[in-house]
Amino acid sequence: MPKFKTPVEAFLFWESKQPDKLFLNQPLNGQYKTYTYKEAGLEIRKIAQSLRDLNLPKDGKVAILSKNCAHWIMADLAILMAGYVSVPIYPTLLADGIEYIINHSEAKAIIIGKLDHYDSQKNGIKNILKISVSLYDIEEEQTWEQLVKTSLPLTDSKGLQPDDLMTIIYTSGTTGVPKGVMHKVSSFAQVGQTALEVINLPSHPRFFSYLPLSHIAERMGIEMHGLFRGAQFYFPESLESFAADLERVQPHLFFAVPRIFAKFKEKILATIPQRKLNIILAIPVLNTLFRKKLHKKLGLGSARIVFSGAAPLAVSMMNWYEKIGISIHQAYGMTEDCALSHFNLPNNNIKGSVGKPLPGATAKLNELGEVCIKSNCLMLGYYKMPEETKASFDEEGYLKTGDIGEYNHQYLYITGRIKDQFKTDKGKYIAPAPIELEFLKNRNIEQICVVGMGIPQPIALITLAENSKNLTQVELSASLIETLNQINPTLEKHEKVEKIVIMSEDWTMENGLLTPTLKTKRNQIEKIHQPKYAIWFNQKNTVIYES
After folding, report:
1. Which residue, among 257, 260, 204, has the nearest Cα to 234 in the 3D structure?
2. Which phi and psi (to 5°) does residue 277 adopt?
3. 234 vs 58, more confident
């Protein structure tokens, strides 16, 4: 297999080698619309020519607003092929967030694909050419279908070259205003090639794309990896059909965030209680048959490797999955380093760690214990934010990740984030992440945020898992206090959690308390609840229900 210098070059290679093989499989109203490499290539070229006809400047920006779908990937390739810079936008963003990114990036056109709530988002799209995909029931002044019908295909399809700016990816904004991370083509190419080298998959593998393609992890780990490998891409039709879609596809690689694995476990235990599961797993022949059936039901029957990323995964969760025959490999990367950082890989998978540096990446810890990364794939900087860009690198050109870590035999362990650390009024710093991971062993807890600014000891704000809804307050309180009593003796005196506060409202993307990658927005949670910390701390009960 040749080494590809650009994603377009990779696509063109596979288009010529396997033109009639499946490239994209789009579920739609219970049916499936498919595109071979040849069919997709023709549509991509026609959209690329339509974009060229806009006569944008050399670094002209074209936005993509869509959930994961066949047209997301075709749009990305068309923008690259036309020689423009793509600006992906999270499909769950509200109108003001969309408007900010369009204005800040100076995008001149936007491709609008599959969305759930476009009517509430369209007010954020102003003074820009809109190209919508009619297939997903969105009609704008220009449609994808019209352009495919009336445009000639682009003949010069090489597109952007290795040193060109390829994309501006806006961070999900866990802290403050989203920043536009600039990456060049060669960075994406190097990460795509690295994936080919370190992950062993069959030819023309099946990939299942469901985490936001506007985020670096899915875009690199699924889209770019799949393009460089000549993969076939599948998508879920909806949240409701997700489990059935995944079971149908049986992808060769599966990537999820910790909350997905927690949900899978919850569903399994709702059907088969842990005690019964233990009995089944203890019987050798039954164990083998059960595991095979369970893996297929989960959609992981063909998975050669399973990854977790975006947030820490508890070792207890990894051990639980190991017992049912699924090894989860934690990976670590960020938008700014193009996800070329640390991975656990088969035969080198140490639970609790995020693995060793990938080929091409070097790492160190600075005097604060902060993880710093260096490679040829680091961002060019934050778009129109020179001061923030300068502050992100040290004098040796290493990217400062903001994560605190430690190494053990070259394996990196993330122990917290510098910005997440807080002081109680006793003046001692607390890193909440390790404490939160311990609490999440309790199946009744869905989400947690350990806080403590302005009070003597930290408190834990939690939301409840679905399975806890059947418990009485007495049963739930007893379960939470038992967990608290197990964790506190393992903590330093100033770290011991004093109270557990059950939130009256779940943290979601819709209410602005979760990022699109399902991480809690700590700054937003703190902003809402900090005035109540002292009131909760001074209450008599250990477990408190927010009123």
Report:
1. 204
2. -60, -40
3. 234
Sign of CA dihedral 49, 53, 55, 56: negative
237/223 Cα distance (integer angstroms): 18
- pLDDT cut 70: percent of the chain above it: 99
Nearest to 424 by CA among 537, 343, 514, 518: 537
Q: Is 413 exposed, middle or buried (0-12, 13-18, 19+ CB in 10 A)?
A: middle
pLDDT band at 389 (very low <50, low <70, confident <90, very high): very high
Q: Token pair for residue 12?
A: 């063109």
Domain boundaries, the chain: 7-193, 253-301+304-417, 422-545
Q: Which CATH number fits domain 7-193: 3.90.226.10, 3.40.630.10, 1.10.155.10, 3.40.50.980?
A: 3.40.50.980
What top-level class would CATH report for the domain 253-301+304-417? alpha beta
What is the H or E stretch that residue 445 is in? strand 445-451
Q: Which residues contact 46 (CB under 8 A, 6 or more apart)?
A: 147, 148, 151, 152, 153, 154
Please give the span between the terminal C-alpha atoms of the chain, in angstroms, as a whole number.
61
Q: Which of 463, 476, 466 is nearest to 520 (CA)?
A: 463
How far is it, in rounded angstroms, from Cα 140 to Cα 419?
42
- Work out the percent of the chain whose per-residue pLDDT is above 90: 74
CATH class of 422-545: alpha beta
Q: How many residues does the chain have?
A: 547
297 has a pLDDT exceeding 60: yes
Average pLDDT, the chain: 92
If one counts every other C-beta atom within 10 angstroms of the C-beta of residue 537, the result is 19
pLDDT for the residue numbered 546: 87
> Using CA atoms, how far apart are residues 73 and 232, in angstroms rounded to an integer?
12
- Cα dihedral 331, 335, 340, 341, rounded to 10, equals -50
SS3 string, 164-181, reads CEEEEEECCCCCCCCCEE
Q: Which residues 6+ apart lie within 8 Å of 390 measured at CB?
A: none
